[in-house]
Amino acid sequence: MSLRARDRLARAARRPTPERTPEAPADPTDTATSCVRFVGWANRTDHAISRVAIWTSIEFSSSCSVAYTVTYANELTGESFVGGSGQLLNSSFGGTIEVDALDFSTPYTVTLTIADQSGLALVQRSTTVTTPGPRGSE
Length: 138
Description:
Elements: H1 3-14, H2 28-32, E1 36-47, E2 52-62, E3 65-74, E4 80-89, E5 92-102, E6 107-116, E7 121-130
Antiparallel strand pairs: 1-2, 2-5, 3-4, 3-6, 6-7
């Protein structure tokens, strides 16, 4: 073994090795999202047949068992409902959830939650989307 290689080994042996024990778990923000790779989401609005709609596109993958839920809350009335939900196990999801027959000119809070089996939110995103007015009123 060369002198240079021996020197590298000696320095590596002196370096402390970080260890994690069950009594001192990793930061939950590190471990909670480690099994979910959130790619992104987007919301758009447009006119549907007789009302307006919100289309929510989401994309993520998981290496664990997760459930996703997209909720919509009318900010004027407080009414809230689930527009889409599902479960994944070691899989990917990319799709669009369409919610139509919504009120014209109304702000809705759209919330995406991806949670583990115990209900712990691993990813949560929220935004406000305002639906357009009736056709011809713009």
